[in-house]
Amino acid sequence: MPADVRHPESLDVDPATGEVYVGTFDARMPESARNNQVLRFAADGRLLAQRHFGPTPLTGVAFHDGQVYVLNFGASKLQRLPARFDADSAIEDVATFAALSPPAPPARRIDNPDGSHDTITFGSQGFPAINGLVFDRAGTLYVSDSFQGAVYRIANAATCRPCEVDVFARDPLLATTGALPFGANGMAFNADQSILYINNAGDGRVLRKRMPDGAIEVLADSVYGADGLLFHEGLLWVSANQIDTLVALDERGRVRHRAGDFLGVDGQGAPRGLLFPAASAVQGRRMIVANLALPLSAGTGDEWEEDVTRWNLMQFDLPDPSPAP
C-alpha cells in the first residue's frame, strides 16, 4: 500500500475490469493523526486513485452498478463514490444508521452439558457499529451491526431517494461478549441467494439465515475472528483474523481448504503472509486478501501488529473448484 495508508480493512473487485477497491480502518488517537481513505488499484496492482475520508474509520466496501459503496463506521453512514473516482470525486451520503430501541439484543441462553444453563445479557450504548455489507440481485443492500446485534436492509439502495433503513434481523446470536468485541460482521449469499451467511467475529462463528424469514442458526464454530466473508464456487471463504488464515467451508460447514499463515514482518515493516486478514475478494482465479494488521490489546510488545509500518494486500491462487478430499 502507499506509505500514507494504514490498516486496509475491506475490499471488493469490479468483475468487469478487475479493479480493486480498498477501504481503511485507521482509528489511531488522536483523531487528527488519522488518514482514512478509499483506494482504487488496477487489476495488476497499480495505484490509480486515492479518495481521502479523514478521521472516520471505514469498514465495508462493495462495488455495485458502477458505484463503490462504503460503510463509514465513524460517521454511521452509508456513502458512495463513482467506480472511476479520483482524489476530488464527490462523496454522496446514501443512508444514516441510528441507535435501536432497545439498544441491545435479547439475552442468549446457553444450555450446558451438565443440564444447567447460563444466560448472557448484552449491553450496548446504542452506537450503530455498521461493519459488513452485501447486495442481492434485486439491488437490496444488507448491512451488519456488530454492537447492536442486527442486520439492516435498504431496498433499492442504488436508486432510493431518500433511503429507508429497516431492521431485517435482530438476534442474540448476532452479538458477542468475546475478547474480540465485534459480533455480526462479514456477510455473503449462497449461489441462489436462498441463504444469507453472517460471521460473528467475537464468537468465532459462521451463522446462516434462510431467506427471507428463517431463524438465524449456527453453521460452524471455532473460526476465531471470523471477519470478511465471501461465497465463491460453492465455498464460503472466511477471513479468520485472529489465526491469520482464510478458511473455506462447504455449505454444511465442513472445512475444505485453508490458506495462509503469518510468516513474520519483513525489513520494510510489512507482513509476510497474513496478519489479521480482514477481507477477501476474487479476481479471476486468484484471491486478494487485506492485511488489517491492527493491534488490539492495551499492552506493548505482545502483538506482531505493533511492528508493522507498511501495510499490504496479499494474493493466492484459488484451489480447483472440485471438492477436496
From TrEMBL:
It comes from the Bacteria. Gene3D superfamilies: TolB, C-terminal domain. InterPro entries: 6-blade_b-propeller_TolB-like. This is SMP-30/gluconolactonase/LRE family protein. It comes from Pseudoxanthomonas mexicana. The lineage of its organism: Bacteria, Pseudomonadati, Pseudomonadota, Gammaproteobacteria, Lysobacterales.
